[in-house]
């Protein structure tokens, strides 16, 4: 280094000289920064980060602040300053989970972006082409954070904004398989979902298969349009309309697309079941809202996998869990208020019941409830007496029910749930809700020691293996190790790719299941071939007299079976009463009294029973004259052709 004289001229004699390399000078001016990362909690995953981020101080109007890095994890948004930490002082009151610069995701209330000095609310994790220069976060605990994004990379800032604003929807657990994998549903936008899955896979936590139902299934508008076409064939105003539509009835029904949508939903549910049952892989199903087709597929998958949900109480708890508590918008989808805006109308819940009916029709002994129960449940959706199907969410229900109605004299509203069937039917009528063909699981004697069989987990919020973790290992450590061994190289797989590939593998999965011994209390899969998907005859034909079968149809079989079951139960009770040791173990199942069906002796019940009665009149179908003549002409020509062919064959 050269010194300068007082006059500013260079001195001929150098003073003390120190040789410093350019690298050393650069290191002195700009020392290398060590990457900082938050101290993650057990099971916490870092999704993305942005640097440098300027965190404004609220107590300074000059908009000064501190530079640092903004991180987003599956638990929080956290800011770590670039400045050297000051001497730590022991705080008397300190939260072990998050600090003053941490925002738990569920604590995020609103996120605003500043565009050219204008503040706009950011919702759903969606950031338009122009990203904001500033992000303001309002927290539910009344804290306010302001971050400048102008110094960081645009792509990094977009990721942080998308995840912070969109991750508040932190996927919902639906059901756990006994192998440790689980079924989840969420409403993440695709860009957020990709970021999260890549982060999870990178941290080797577990393998996840994802399916965006909005890409593989019809949307709610398509469902509505298809059902509108389908139901027109059952809204019969007179006999002439019925017989005219009868000529091309089946082809017209098929062209509506409703049966095909049912088939697609069952197909997708089988794919989910295959991943859980065969591949032992976690499954995450998503859509825009997460409360429509996600409810359909998750509910169907649980019915196929878990026999508990095939019982009456189990099925009702499933609907309550996945649909009512899952915030399906019954008010909008069912159009209870008769709004003109058709964008939100769609019979999604009826679509689910249609799929369940297909399972009941194909595997009747596996279900405790009958098709009459499903028909009554579909009717009850449109009865404005029950609070179950009247609102868009649990919050909506509570806010309306607790608020004092101006028309009410006695304070808050009080509406029964639809599951209180005594409001609509007496005990005798409720007997028709039970399937007499149901094959109840045999209860073994407690003295007989049975081999241990893992059970499905319904009441845990996480896979069961997560709760067996020793304290020294992380929250998901045991699950991670077991899944690593089980999945080995397979870390992450998607259902993207050839559209025929899932159908082919699902077909193999179904065929392998068919070769197993029949177990109505085990895995249950539907046949999805064209002829296997039927029309729900009881629901759609019960009000059309032209199709009534007097003294016949499914009602004849059902009533006879119920009579036989009643007699068997009577004999069983007599035998149990004779045995004093078994007197306290009387069967508490619904008692089907044959007195209930004594009026069937007249033989005038129709196939629409128990919804429509025709015992008061003798019905004879009347075919319109014009149509009759055309049919007779056609029949005459056919008979002439038959006679001609028979003469030729005789000669």
From TrEMBL:
Span list, region Disordered: 1-39
UniProt GO BP: phosphatidylinositol dephosphorylation
PROSITE patterns with a match to the protein in the record: PPASE_MYOTUBULARIN
Domain Myotubularin phosphatase: 173-467
GO cellular component, one term: sarcomere
Principal localisation: cytoplasm
Domain of life: Eukaryota
Presence of the UniProt keyword Transferase in the record: no
Stretches with biased composition (Basic and acidic residues): 23-39
Gene3D superfamilies according to UniProt: Pleckstrin-homology domain (PH domain)/Phosphotyrosine-binding domain (PTB)
Residues given in the record as substrate binding sites: 219-220
Location within or outside the cell: Cytoplasm, Myofibril, Sarcomere; Sarcoplasmic reticulum
InterPro entries noted in UniProt: MTMR12-like_C, Myotubularin, Myotubularin-like_Pase_dom, PH-like_dom_sf, Prot-tyrosine_phosphatase-like
Alphabetical UniProt keywords: Cytoplasm, Sarcoplasmic reticulum
Pfam families associated with the record: 3-PAP (PF12578), Myotub-related (PF06602)
Family named by the database record: Belongs to the protein-tyrosine phosphatase family. Non-receptor class myotubularin subfamily.
Designated name of the protein: Myotubularin-related protein 12
Taxonomic lineage from the root: Eukaryota, Metazoa, Chordata, Craniata, Vertebrata
């Amino acid at each position: 280094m050269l010194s300068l004289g007082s006059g500013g001229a260079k001195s001929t004699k150098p003073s003390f000289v120190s040789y410093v390399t350019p690298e050393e000078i650069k290191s002195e001016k700009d020392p290398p920064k060590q990457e900082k990362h938050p101290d993650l909690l057990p099971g916490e995953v870092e999704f993305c980060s942005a640097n440098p981020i300027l965190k404004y101080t609220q107590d300074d109007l000059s908009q000064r602040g501190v530079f640092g890095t903004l991180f987003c994890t599956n638990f929080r948004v956290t800011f770590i300053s670039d400045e050297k930490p000051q001497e730590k002082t022991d705080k008397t009151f300190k939260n072990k989970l998050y600090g003053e610069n941490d925002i738990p995701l569920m604590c995020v209330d609103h996120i605003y972006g500043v565009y050219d000095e204008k503040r706009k609310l950011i919702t759903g994790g969606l950031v338009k082409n122009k990203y904001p220069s500033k992000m303001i976060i309002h927290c539910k605990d009344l804290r306010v954070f302001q971050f400048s994004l102008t110094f960081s990379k645009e792509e990094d800032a977009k990721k942080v904004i998308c995840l912070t604003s969109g991750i508040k929807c932190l996927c919902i657990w639906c059901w756990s398989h006994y192998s440790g994998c689980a079924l989840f549903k969420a409403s993440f936008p695709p860009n957020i979902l990709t970021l999260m899955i890549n982060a999870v896979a990178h941290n080797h936590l577990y393998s996840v298969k994802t399916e965006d139902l909005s890409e593989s299934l019809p949307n709610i508008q398509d469902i509505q349009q298809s059902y509108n076409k389908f139901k027109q064939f059952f809204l019969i105003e007179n006999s002439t309309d019925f017989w005219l539509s009868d000529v091309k009835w089946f082809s017209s029904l098929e062209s509506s697309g409703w049966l095909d949508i049912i088939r697609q939903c069952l197909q997708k549910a089988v794919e989910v079941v295959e991943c859980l049952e065969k591949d032992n892989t976690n499954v995450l199903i998503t859509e825009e809202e997460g409360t429509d087709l996600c409810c359909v597929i998750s509910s169907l998958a649980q019915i196929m996998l878990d026999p508990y949900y095939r019982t009456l109480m189990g099925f009702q708890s499933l609907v309550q869990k996945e649909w009512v508590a899952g915030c399906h918008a019954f008010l909008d989808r069912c159009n209870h208020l008769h709004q003109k805006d058709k964008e939100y109308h769609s019979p999604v819940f009826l679509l689910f019941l249609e799929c369940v009916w297909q399972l009941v029709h194909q595997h009747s002994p596996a279900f405790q409830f009958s098709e009459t129960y499903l028909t009554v449940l579909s009717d009850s959706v449109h009865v404005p007496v029950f609070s179950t199907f009247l609102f868009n969410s649990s919050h909506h229900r509570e806010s309306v029910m607790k608020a004092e109605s101006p028309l009410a004299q006695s304070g808050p509203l009080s509406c029964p749930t639809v599951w209180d069937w005594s409001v609509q039917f007496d005990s005798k009528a409720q007997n028709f809700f039970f399937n007499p063909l149901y094959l109840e699981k045999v209860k073994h004697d407690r003295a007989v020691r049975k081999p241990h069989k893992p059970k499905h987990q319904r009441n845990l919020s996480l896979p069961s293996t997560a709760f067996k973790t020793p304290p020294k290992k992380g929250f998901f450590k045991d699950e991670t190790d077991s899944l690593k061994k089980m999945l080995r190289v397979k870390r992450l797989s998607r259902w993207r790719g050839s559209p025929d590939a899932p159908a082919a593998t699902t077909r193999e999965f179904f065929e392998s299941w068919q070769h197993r011994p029949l177990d109505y209390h085990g895995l249950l899969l539907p046949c999805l071939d064209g002829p296997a998907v039927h029309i729900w005859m009881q629901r759609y034909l019960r009000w059309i007299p032209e199709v009534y079968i007097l003294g016949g149809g499914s009602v004849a079989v059902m009533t006879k079976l119920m009579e036989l079951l009643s007699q068997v139960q009577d004999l069983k009770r007599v035998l149990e009463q004779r045995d004093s040791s078994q007197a306290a173990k009387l069967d508490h199942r619904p008692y089907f009294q044959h007195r209930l069906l004594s009026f069937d002796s007249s033989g005038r019940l129709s196939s629409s029973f128990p919804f429509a009665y025709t015992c008061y009149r003798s019905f004879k179908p009347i075919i319109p004259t014009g149509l009759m003549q055309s049919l007779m002409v056609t029949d005459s020509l056919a008979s002439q052709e038959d006679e001609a062919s028979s003469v030729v064959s005789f000669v």
